[in-house]
Design brief:
The chain is of the alpha/beta class. Helices cover 29% and strands 17% of the residues. α1 packs parallel to α2 and α3 runs parallel beside α5. The two termini are 27 Å apart. Bound molecules: iron/sulfur cluster. The site of iron/sulfur cluster (SF4) has 11 residues, from loops.
């Protein structure tokens, strides 16, 4: 029986965070202060992740996305993807900051990866370094080139827009998509940053991004599946490349949400903005059977939140910041 919640939503997508470590320190995600990483033994081992992946597959999960922190910093991630492929997972994707991608792209492809999203919040190397607090612009661009010349093409580029930081680059990103034939996705900034600096004023609404691009390069909407997070557009003049708009704040898509998350330390999060975690790791390490784990997962998913409540007066950001949840 497929996994579903009390609102009748079928849960078919699992985002698996394989590490809470990251080699970037993006201002909208990670705190400037040293954070308390989980101890190594608190993080699920690869055998534990393999077992849980097979249980979730049995429960009807069709799509699995490998995230972090930064997934490529954990050795063995390609073998994990091969395991997911061997399980028969229909769609295996990854979200990465691209820093290590150029050297790993071929191995990711041969391990069975279907799709990849690369985070890139600025095309200005100086600004990129200020946002990520790294000197990795060139390596990320090399990573994008590697994907564009592989079977993972077209690369999906994720840019989180923050008013006053990179909202001046919307048109430049659109040109980037047109010149390289890639999928440029603009994501509204969500209240999940480590330093809690999020305010509504710094959110750049997707409608504004649409207007700015459409007024210069007319866009045509591409039909999309209702559980997809992005509204997708092609260029009406036939130029290759696509634009994706992800508007969790101004146009929430929770009504059709099909996602749950597994954190690196073995907690189920039924929503990005869940107020509570559900501890699968303890059950696993206390010797629970596969059947026990399935029953537990079903009961947790049944209680999945209706939505994120960002636009409600009583909204409070979750205690976990993005780096400890995974994209
Ligand atoms: S905020 Fe929560 S319910 Fe809404 S789309 Fe995201 S994960 Fe799903």
């Amino acid at each position: 029986m497929m996994l579903h919640d009390k609102f009748g939503r079928q849960i078919t997508d699992l985002r698996i965070s394989v590490t809470d470590r990251c080699n970037f320190r993006c201002v909208y995600c990670r705190s400037a202060d040293p954070e308390n990483y989980r101890e190594h033994d608190e993080i699920l081992s690869w055998p534990e992740l393999n077992r849980l992946a097979s249980i979730f597959k049995t429960l009807g999960i069709r799509k699995m996305r490998v995230t972090g922190g930064e997934p490529l910093v954990r050795p063995g991630v390609e073998d994990f993807i091969s395991h997911l492929r061997a399980l028969g997972v229909e769609d295996i994707s990854m979200t990465t900051n691209g820093h290590l991608l150029a050297d790993r792209c071929a191995r990711l492809v041969s391990s069975g990866l279907n799709r990849i999203n690369i985070s890139l919040d600025s095309l200005d190397s100086g600004k990129f370094e200020r946002i990520t607090r790294t000197k990795s612009f060139a390596s990320v661009m090399n990573g994008i080139d590697a994907v564009q010349s592989s079977t993972l093409a077209p690369a999906k580029i994720n840019a989180v827009l923050v008013r006053g930081i990179n909202d001046d680059e919307v048109e430049r990103f659109a040109i980037f998509a047109r010149e390289r034939g890639l999928i440029m996705r603009f994501i509204e900034f969500m209240p999940l940053d480590g330093d809690r600096h999020w305010t509504r004023d710094v959110v750049v609404p997707a409608a504004e991004v649409y207007e700015r691009i459409h007024s210069r390069w007319p866009l045509e909407q591409i039909p999309h599946h209702h559980s997809e997070t992005a509204r997708k557009y092609r260029f009406a003049d036939g130029t290759h490349g696509e634009i994706g708009l992800i508007a969790p704040v101004t146009q929430p898509f929770c009504g059709h949400c099909s996602r749950i998350r597994l954190t690196a330390d073995g907690k189920i999060r039924t929503c990005l903005f869940s107020k509570e975690d559900h501890d699968l790791r303890s059950l696993l390490r206390e010797g629970a059977s596969d059947e026990d784990l399935e029953i537990y997962i079903r009961s947790v998913v049944m209680e999945k939140e209706e939505g994120h409540r960002i636009n409600h007066a009583d909204f409070r950001p979750p205690t976990r910041s993005m780096v400890f949840i995974g994209g």
